[in-house]
Every structure is written in C-alpha cells, then in structure tokens.
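Researcher: Before we compare anything, I want clean individual predictions. No alignment, no superposition, just each chain on its own. First chain goes here; please echo the sequence and then give the structure tokens.
Model: Echoing the first chain and its structure:
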Amino acid sequence: MTAFQRAVSVQVGDERGEGLAFDERFRVSFELTKTLEPEGGDGVVRIYNPAPATRDRLVRDALFVVVAAGYQGAPVGEIYSGDVVRAVYKHERPDTYLEFELTDGARAIKNTRISVAFAAGTPIRTVLDAVLNRLDLPVRETGYEVEGVYQQGVAFTGLARDALDRVVAKAGLTWSIQDGRIQILAPDAPANTSAVRLTPDTGLIASPEKLDDRESETQRQKGDGYLVRTLMAPKVEPGASVLLAAQGIDEAEYRVDRVVHLGDTRGNDWYTEAEVYATP
C-alpha cells in the first residue's frame, strides 16, 4: 500500500471532552503497544509541523488521544485510546512536531480507592461487579464466566486495582485495560468475538516467525506461538482470536497476546505486528 492510500484520524482531547482532530493530510506517526498485562499498553504519537496556536494549546491542555487507522475507501478502525502522560514540542530539522506519550487507562485506575466488605457465602461475581463499579470504567464483553463463592467472606481497603487483582485471581481469570475498557479473560482463552483471518490474501506480510523462547513463556502463552506482521489491522488486538494460515503453517486458531501498531503517513511504516499463541 502506498502512502496516499492510508487513512488516519487522531483525536486529541482536553478535560472538557473538546479537542482537535488530525487526518492523513497531516504528517502523523505513531508506535502503539497493547498487551494483556494489567499495566496497560503505552504509545507515542507525533503530529508534525503544527501551527503555533495549535502547538501551545495541546501542550497545555491535552489529556487523551484516540487513534483510528486504516486505508482510504474503507472504514478506519480505532487502534488505541489512552491518557496523555507527557506532551512536548520538539524540533528536528526540517520538521517540528508535537509528541504525546500515552498510557492506556492510567488516569482512571491510578489512585481510585475502595473500602468494602462481603459476608461469607457471597458469590465471587458479586464481589467482582462491586470492584468494577468502583473503578468506573466500562467492561468489554468477552464471554467470561465467574463461578464460586467466598466461603469466609472478604474485605478490601486500599487501591481498587489491587482488589481487582485479588478477585480476578480468585476467579481464575486475568484482566487488562484495552482502549479505556477493562477486559477479563480466562488465562488461555480468546474473547468471544469473530476470528480475524490472517493469510497472504488478507494482508499478511512475509512469513510468521516462530516464538519458541520457553523461558519467557507466561501463563497465557502455553501453545505454539508466532510473531506475525500484517497490513494495518485494527481488529487484531490483545485477546482477539485469529485464524492464521501461511506457507508451512496449516490454518489454526490463535489468541493475540501483544500488538504493536506502527504508522507514518509520510514514511514506510503502516502495519500491525502481533504475538499470537495457539489456543487449547
């Protein structure tokens, strides 16, 4: 795909929900990482050669950034939504640019506290819902199930994210933040969404690379794994199911554990890179 076929939308907002939008008419570059870890993903977005008034306003007021990307002639899809950790103006001749350092969900969960207690026999699902309500973030529907009860009751006082860690572990599940929404999954299962097909005909670039470093294997990475690269693919996100098929690889279902979206409307980068692992 050549640069003129690319499409992008970058929304930069302030505390009032107001902001500015940039599209492919501007030079925009980004490197956006998303994982299944509770810490959330991070990223960097650059807007090149902004007007002085735009530069000053966004350095002062920017709180969040939403990025959607794809190709002209087709709907673009959201690839990242995160909080601005740092906004700076830089000069690298011949360009100047605004650089936004981002993190996913940090503002909502960083300092939220909770103080609750539940009697013996309370379902784990009831406790989980109470903690999630305190975090005040939307929950992505993934089809997870919660079973069991607290036989001796339970109480939490402190950070709500610490309580979420404990309740999710009690339920035998995992959690992460994806584009400002809490996602809960079984340790080795994908979300109950339609699988994304990854083949050379659908945009797969080069041959998948086998991931076989067993020493770094996590609880969520039990099956055979591959590092894959495809044309910009918004639906390839952590927890998603993909059907991977390539030369020497029979079609099978994999779960996405880590994604990096790389793009530059005036450069070579415009692709998605993902680590995927076989599902049971």
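Researcher: Okay. Second chain, same rules.
Model: Second chain and its structure:
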Amino acid sequence: MSNAVTKTKGVEVSTEVVVDMFEDGAEGAVFSADDLLIPRLQLAQKMSPELDENDAKYIEGIKAGNFFNSVSRDIYTDIEVIPCHSRTSYTEWVPRDQGGGLVGEHDADSPDVKSAETHVSDDGKRKDIMQSGNELVIADEFYSFIVKEDGDYEPVLISMKSSQRKVAKRWRTLISMNKARNPKTNQLQSVPIYSTLWKLTSVIEANKNNEKYSNFSVQKIGPISTDKQDLYHAAKQFRESIIAGEVKAVQEEDATSTKETADEKQSEPPLDPDAEAPF
C-alpha cells in the first residue's frame, strides 16, 4: 500500500470545530474544472533537483527511487494506483542551450512528428529532432488514482519517457489482457482500464554505459473490491472527464532544462516489443 516517507505534522482540532466543518460542507473549496490541475506522480533520480538541498525544488527526506507528488510533494516508496485513461503525448521543446521551454503538443500523425529524426550525441544520448530544430519528447501517460491506506484517493498523471516507455508498453499489454468472468454469463470478458488496482514500485537499472538509474515496476493487485463501488464509479467519471477535455495536468518542467539522468543518455535502437521490462 502507499507508504509516505514524510508526513505533515497533525494539528489537533476541537470536537466542536470538527462538527462545524461537516455542517459547512465544502464551502469555498469547490472549483470549476478550469481552475484545477492534475498533479504529476514523478520518480526521483539521483540527479533530480528534488534531491539537491541547494535547489528550490528540494524535498526533505526524498531519496532516489522514491515517487513524489509534484503538487503536494508527498513522498512514496511504493503506491497503489488505478489507471483510468492512457494516451501518448508528442510535445515540442526548445533545446536547453537555446533557453528551453515548451512550444506545444502535436498529434501523432502530424508532419512535424513524422519528419522528426533521431540524433545520437557523442555521449550516447538520443534525441528526436524536429525540422524546426526543436526536440520532440514522446511520453506514454497514465491518468490514474492514487489509492491511500485510509481508502481515500486522489488523481495524478504518470508520464513515462525514454527507457520508461518499455514499462508503459508492458503495462498497456497487461491492461489489454485483463479479463474477468461475468457472473451473469459465466464468460470471460475484457474489463475496463479503471476496474483494477496496480502496485507501483521502483527498480534500479543500468544503461549501456553502466550508469544506474531508477525505473518503474508495475504489478497487478486485482479488481476493485465490491465494497468500494464508489471508487469504481469515481474512476470511471475521471476517465470520462479526461476524454471530454475537462481536466488538465500540471505542466511538466522544461523537458530539456533539467539535469540529465542516466536513462536519458542511452544510445539504443527503437523500442523492441520483445525486450524485457521490470515487472
């Protein structure tokens, strides 16, 4: 189950105040979809700014291989999630030596994406370069619910790039193979993406230069239990909101301006569908 490394110190509140809180409901805490952003669940690497005590993004207590929420800054060593929707994004970024910054997102079949060429630098780092000279970053995304020990849940976006994409491919394959027996027909049938709990942990891998980095590991837990139908319906509604374009994720930090991690330096051919992924 989710395991927070750092916890906010609790504040004792009188019984009278707690009662008033429930009587007042969510007064002042309800916003439209346009006012809200979905945080990202990120995987800390040795060179991540969140590990640098002198960086403004530093998170106390975090270690390489921990997951963290980009908004709440909560830390997890492992976590249970429900994927609700998956897509692949194609974003264009100005190179870091030219100032960095997001240009925009493209469709998979756009000429800008199809004309991008893979370049390998002297240090072995692969980059997809567009006709404009900007970098194309491809990421497999999973809009998900984090399910906490107390039964609460919160939405996050899990974005997998570079070597993480082989894990995303395996996860999507397992999701597509996920079946259950329908009690009404006694037949096995495919089930919705948002019907199943998965456990996320991290593992250590090494690139071809033997530089180590953390990567995702995914393991199936099982279907949402019958006593948590509210969670099932919330996950379904979350998926519908994403498809309708009613929710947006927190914008990622400049993909070309952060410190390089070992998995970004790999010089590898395009993903081999038969390559092993950590599960």
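Researcher: What stands out in the second chain?
Model: The helical segments are 15-24, 111-114, 165-177, 229-243. Additionally, The longest strand covers residues 79-93.
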